[in-house]
Specification:
Two copies of one chain form a homodimer. Chain A is mainly α and 197 residues long. Chain A contains nine helices and no strands. In chain A, helix 8 runs antiparallel to helix 9. At the A-B interface, helix 6, helix 7, helix 8 and helix 9 of A face helix 6, helix 7, helix 8 and helix 9 of B. The structure holds a DNA duplex (18 and 18 nucleotides).
Chain lengths: 197, 197
Amino acid sequence: MVDNQGMEKNTATQILDVAQNMVRNRGYSAFSYADISEQVGIRKASIHYHFPSKENLVTMLVKRYRQGMMRECDRIAKSGTDPDEQLMQFAQLYRNGLQQDQICLCAMLAADFAVLPYPIQTEIRAFFAETEAWLTALLQQGCDAQLWTCQPSVAQEAKSLMALLQGAQLLARSAEDGYEVFDQIISPVLAVKLPEP
Amino acid sequence: MVDNQGMEKNTATQILDVAQNMVRNRGYSAFSYADISEQVGIRKASIHYHFPSKENLVTMLVKRYRQGMMRECDRIAKSGTDPDEQLMQFAQLYRNGLQQDQICLCAMLAADFAVLPYPIQTEIRAFFAETEAWLTALLQQGCDAQLWTCQPSVAQEAKSLMALLQGAQLLARSAEDGYEVFDQIISPVLAVKLPEP
DNA sequence: GTCTATACGAGGATAGAC
DNA sequence: GTCTATCCTCGTATAGAC
């Protein structure tokens, strides 16, 4: 596994990394340039050099997050495993966030939707549309391979699965043992997807 | 239907009503005493007479919301209809919020969980525990009446359903047509609950 | 109970030196 | 690129008059 050990990450990337953790954990309104400043080790004013405004910063953040999500999905798709295994890996993406008490960036921003500038809203919609499209294709593969059936349509099943995963993250973070709650929520529904014994 | 037409609501109640709309729509960090002040028609300082701090205000808010939810659930339970009809009415509670672009108060606060004072966190946990208990009992009735089966347990199915409903609200509010998305998400899962043709 | 006035800090943002 | 210094607004909260 190649990582960045010893490599200097540029400042803009560091800012985005910290901001991402903050937004996923606290939401749009509850994180500030001062928070980023502390963790990155530069002054508040310096952040404005890289990202002129908060609106700009978060817009860039969602763009990057969207690309990252698509990369992950592509990786899963190209792994060559069966659709049911791919579905589990997809669910795993949501499960991973829990270790730092984080939910999906766009799930958090969907909650904050009413206070977001329009450009950010647009990016969020794009994220959900892309993710849904990918998941729909995966579900269709499973149907074709007779692994499962989707009623009344693969598109609706995809939406339902996304809602389930996001809701599971939401419920998990207010629970003491987040992982256990998440797994309990996921298991009945994903079990239904597998062939009957 | 008896309503409060002509009745003066006391100030504390008005404050809670406005605050509830605000929190459900914008979250904990993005609403202020100034917002309430405007809509209720009194000064910021006057709000502090009724609720000394924001923490206190929102704690009271969640307590009241929790009681309201339990009242609604009791009403459904005592309606004498079949479990499957009761389940639809329960889902309807979540659907109703959408008309004002609002999600469940506690779903919103679950997203904001990391920034909430401890007393509020406690109330939210209590809300979810109560709701889950009620829903578990309803699902059990349906099992007993052979209307459906719950795998691997009614408790897990209850959690899954709550996650689905909250996730559906989240996805609905970032969509142009919220109701349509919500209904699409709900229908595949709730349809499974009904007897096979 | 509600008001005016005010304290005090935090928030996002800009100007200009280095 | 990053700094210091500063602006202006908004946030929660308190004191004290009415």
